[in-house]
Specification:
The complex is a heterodimer of chains A (about 325) and B (about 575). Helices cover about 65% and strands about 5% of the residues of chain A. Chain A contains eight helices and two strands. In chain A, strands 1-2 form a two-stranded antiparallel ribbon. In chain A, strand 1 and strand 2 form a beta hairpin. In chain A, helix 1 packs antiparallel against helix 4 and helix 6 packs antiparallel against helix 7. Chain A is flat. Chain A starts with a helix and ends in a 10-residue tail after the last helix. Chain B is elongated. In chain B, a hairpin with a 7-residue loop joins strand 15 and strand 16. Chain B is of the alpha+beta class and about 575 residues long. Helix content of chain B is about 25%, strand content about 30%. In chain B, the strands form six sheets. In chain B, strands 14, 15, 16, 19, 20 and 21 form a six-stranded antiparallel sheet that branches. Classes of the chains: A mainly alpha (about 325), B alpha+beta (about 575). At the A-B interface, strand 1, strand 2, helix 6 and helix 7 of A face helix 2, strand 1, strand 8, strand 11 and helix 9 of B.
């Protein structure tokens, strides 16, 4: 198959993925609406920790009364299941489209803004799907699918470029490592920002004696959300630290210095410092809770600023938008 | 205390109110400010300040990375630029305020890390602390009672001491550091094991922070001893690694000329590949510089320099950073004597390598002559007759020259940029503004033209091989610009960066926790087993860890812990 044919198949798959994501987004939104209806009356959980002893046959059995779950248990509703299934389907199409783009170009599909928005959104959705095995974070589905739709929309409409050969500066294996890890970091920061956002509204709701948005009652409490956000963001921070270092090594190879305060380097540094601040805030008395959540959101806003505004409007050496 | 007092793991502050602050003496104030500086809140504030302070460096052109941008900013905003310059916004990362923030941050860091290192060194050498009297106050706690007369797995009577002995084994196998305690509680004799694990978390944290200090020091020293030189070489030219031969040279504070390694480098050929059709037409695909290096003894060696493949030579790193055309121009006086003949590196202006060059002839002609020249590798006339370049390779090379006569302004001995022609005291002879409407001189390789005013002639030399004079692709020499760097601490920076990463991984993902198992002898020969854990730092899996230990302990004792 020719490059042009592969590239057009890739685009078809991406458009299909966007269609499926749209339906997933609608279903996730309906799920949130449904959650409002099913939101239980606030249950006060009383964990019972002291066990009781009993005897079965000749063996002493240490029995423990089951602790009440910290959050009221709920079974997922139909909309959520449909939405998640659609997300997986959309993601598969998305991955096919992204891989085809790479096959068409005979290289990794993240060498310009268009390709980067394909890959970055695919990884964000991929990480979102993967973390469900660890924690049920499906309440972020509307945020994640909506975010990916916007990213793909900008990518296909605003940044589309034909398959082009790599300029000499990008011909390096560091392109594979540096950009891929940066994207992974972005995905974790995205999920972390979503959790922090929910945490902030949850905190407000808890302060207002559980009035307000009712579907929040089906989500973890603010403290749990904060812990989850922290655990996701530290993973992102490790990836970001690696990105910064790999970028410095590549910069040394390509530009003759490992650090030169190029605009993109500046913003990578700013983001790293903001998240370092976030981690410190979590360890500073008086800064836990909403304050650190704001920092996580500001950090992710800086990531997005770095990807869009800095790439498009700031002058610098990272001029690879392909536009 | 090892950590700043406002660290989340430090004891909560005493409620204020009736406390009357004692009057502080000078030493008291010093201690007070030191405490403030090394507190978590200050560190956090400085971190956020650092992030904000870095922003202007991306908004304004920086002298370090974009000196031309700064010059341009001064031209475009003549009134605002000096004010901005006074605020050091063109040198953000070496400015007083940026330096103040990061130096304070690092002082705060050192003040925080050193006491913690000492404390941690002591903690590493000491046993886990005594078991708290009331374990049920801890976050993760569970307890179970066992009937009198119970036996352990081997059939021996289960005593409190035996239960704790087996608990110790369980904790040991879970890589806890353990210590046994026994004593009397309100309900009876108590035997307990106190355990701690995850010392590597704090070690990693300290390594992370110490490595950051290492990076700062290495960067500072490297900047002092290193140097950077730029050199433009036209194909066939060579340069020796001597300071004066560089076109520009930046050196660190402690650099001396003796630090320059003696070698020579000759650019044999420079090959460029462009996308010849389809999307991305004219986009460069490959730049390859073939060079010959000569060491101090004159031994020659062939080497290749590419964009992502620098040449490491004699402690130097040589990078290929730019390239372009260097049209070879010959100027003769009216009697045919050559007064100027050399390749002139032209600065590329766009992707199709429309290039701008300046030719200055101060001597040898009846007047000083300056030329502002545009070079079009593949010239094509637009609708209005203006020339443009439509492809970066040499398909239809044309040189267009605007000629001036008068004062070049270089007689005073002041250094002037070779890329700028100041025409204030010059009159145009050919091109826009020429008195008699003479148009700019346009030449193809091999062509000559008279300089208006009877000053002489100019030739655009065809440098294609004599055997193949029609080969336009070889008719104009190319130049490559090289950056020569020496940074003696670069390896140290990399090493510290790696330890930063290793420290970060261990400090974030290894849980530090204390764990206790207590066996209490109750009335009537019954036993109560208590399990408790305490997180030191972020530890979301503490509850799970405590119940896992309880499960394993029960199994070890031959008991079943029913859910």
């Amino acid at each position: 198959m020719t490059t042009a044919a592969l590239a057009s198949y890739s685009l078809t798959a991406i458009y299909s993925a966007m269609g499926v994501y749209l339906f997933a987004f609608i279903a996730f939104t309906l799920d949130l609406a449904k959650r409002s209806a099913e939101a239980p009356v606030a249950v006060v959980a009383v964990p019972v920790r002291v066990g009781q002893m009993s005897r079965v046959g000749g063996t002493a059995v240490l029995e423990r009364e089951p602790a009440a779950p910290a959050t009221p248990g709920r079974t997922s509703n139909r909309f959520e299941r449909v939405a998640f299934a659609l997300t997986i389907l959309g993601w598969l199409l998305h991955v096919v489209g992204t891989v085809l783009r790479g096959v068409a170009a005979h290289r990794v599909p993240w060498a310009n803004m268009f390709e980067f928005s394909l890959t970055a959104s695919a990884i964000i959705v991929g990480v979102f799907i993967a973390v469900q095995a660890w924690q049920n974070l499906r309440f972020l589905g509307a945020y994640i699918t909506g975010f990916s739709l916007i990213m793909l929309g900008f990518g296909t409409v605003g940044f589309y470029v034909n398959v082009m050969p790599l300029p000499p500066a990008l011909q390096s294996y560091w392109l594979i490592i540096h950009v891929f890890v940066a994207t992974l970091g972005t995905a974790f920061f995205a999920i972390g920002a979503g959790l922090s956002l929910v945490q902030l509204v949850q905190t407000r709701r808890e302060a207002n004696r559980f009035s307000g948005l009712k579907f929040l009652a089906t989500m973890p409490d603010a403290e749990k959300l904060e812990t989850l956000a922290y655990r996701v963001i530290v993973v992102g921070f490790v990836f970001w630290t690696f990105t910064l270092m790999a970028g410095a090594i590549w910069a040394e190879h390509a530009w003759g210095r490992y650090w030169g305060w190029d605009t993109k380097e500046v913003w990578t540094f700013i983001i790293w410092t903001l998240y370092a601040g976030y981690i410190h805030a979590r360890a500073t008395r008086g800064w836990r809770g909403s304050r650190s959540a704001y920092l996580a959101i500001v950090g992710f806003a800086a990531v997005m600023f770095n990807f869009t505004i800095v790439n498009l409007f700031f002058k610098g050496l990272h001029a690879y938008s392909g536009l | 205390m090892s950590r700043p007092s406002d660290h989340i793991d430090s004891p909560a502050p005493q409620p204020r109110g009736e406390i009357i602050q004692p009057k502080l003496g000078p030493a008291g104030y010093v201690r007070f400010f030191w405490r403030q500086l090394t507190s978590m809140r200050t560190a956090l504030l400085l971190l956020l300040l650092l992030a904000i302070a870095a922003v202007p460096g991306s908004l304004f052109p920086q002298r370090s990375s974009d000196p031309n941008g700064v010059t341009q900013y001064f031209t475009n905003n003549p009134s605002a630029a000096p004010i901005i310059d006074n605020l050091q916004l063109f040198d953000v990362y070496t400015s007083a305020w940026f330096s103040a923030i990061y130096l304070l941050l690092f002082i705060s860091l050192i003040g925080c890390v050193i006491p913690r290192t000492i404390y941690h060194a002591k903690a590493l050498a000491s046993a886990p602390p005594k078991t708290p009297a009331r374990l049920e106050r801890l976050a993760a706690f569970s307890a179970f009672e066992i009937e009198a007369g119970e036996t352990d797995a081997s059939g021996a009577p289960l005593t409190a001491a035996a239960a704790i002995e087996s608990g110790r084994a369980v904790l040991r196998s879970a890589r806890y550091r353990v210590k046994l305690f026994d004593g009397r509680g309100p309900e009876g004799a108590e035997f307990s094991v106190s355990a701690e694990r995850g010392y590597l978390r704090e070690t990693g944290n300290l390594i992370f922070h110490l490595s950051l200090i290492g990076i700062l020091i290495a960067v500072g020293i490297g900047g002092g001893f290193g140097y950077t030189g730029q050199k433009v070489l036209v194909t066939g030219q060579a340069f020796a690694n001597v300071r004066l031969t560089f076109d520009s040279f930046t050196k660190g504070r402690f650099f001396s000329d003796g630090d320059l390694q003696p070698y020579r480098l000759k650019l044999d050929s420079f090959a460029v590949k462009y996308q010849e059709s389809g999307p991305g037409l004219g986009q460069p695909i490959d730049y390859t510089a073939d060079v010959t290096t000569f060491d101090a003894s004159g031994t020659a060696a062939k080497a290749v320099v590419k964009v992502n493949e620098p040449l490491r030579l004699g402690g130097n790193d040589i990078y290929l950073l730019g390239n372009g055309y260097a049209p070879w121009v010959t100027v003769k006086n009216p009697s045919g004597k050559v007064v100027y003949s050399e390749p002139v590196p032209f600065l590329p202006q766009n992707a199709n390598l429309l290039s701008l060059g300046i030719i200055k002839i101060p001597d040898g002609l009846a007047a000083q002559v300056g030329m502002r020249a545009f070079f079009y590798p593949t010239a094509e006339a637009g609708a209005s007759g203006e020339l443009g370049s439509v492809y970066p390779d040499l398909r239809n090379p044309v040189l267009s020259l605007v000629v001036f006569r008068g004062d070049l302004g270089i007689d005073k001995g002041l250094p002037k940029s070779v890329y700028v022609l100041n025409t204030d005291k010059m009159t145009p002879l050919a091109g826009p503004g020429a008195a008699d409407g003479t148009s700019a001189i346009r030449l193809k390789p091999g062509e000559s033209a008279k300089i208006p005013g009877g000053l002489g002639s100019i030739t655009f030399e065809n440098k294609a091989p004599a055997s193949d004079p029609g080969n336009l692709e070889k008719s104009v020499p190319r130049f490559a610009s090289f950056d020569v760097h020496r940074d003696p601490t670069q390896g140290w920076v990399l090493l510290f960066a790696l330890t930063v990463l290793a420290g970060l991984l261990t400090s974030l993902f290894i849980p530090r926790r204390r764990m206790w198992i207590k066996a209490v002898e109750l009335e009537g020969g019954r036993l109560r087993l208590e399990y408790a854990g305490l997180a030191r730092g972020e530890d979301p899996t503490l509850d799970a860890a405590v119940s896992a230990i309880a499960q394993r302990h029960a199994k070890q004792l031959g008991l079943r812990l029913a859910r």
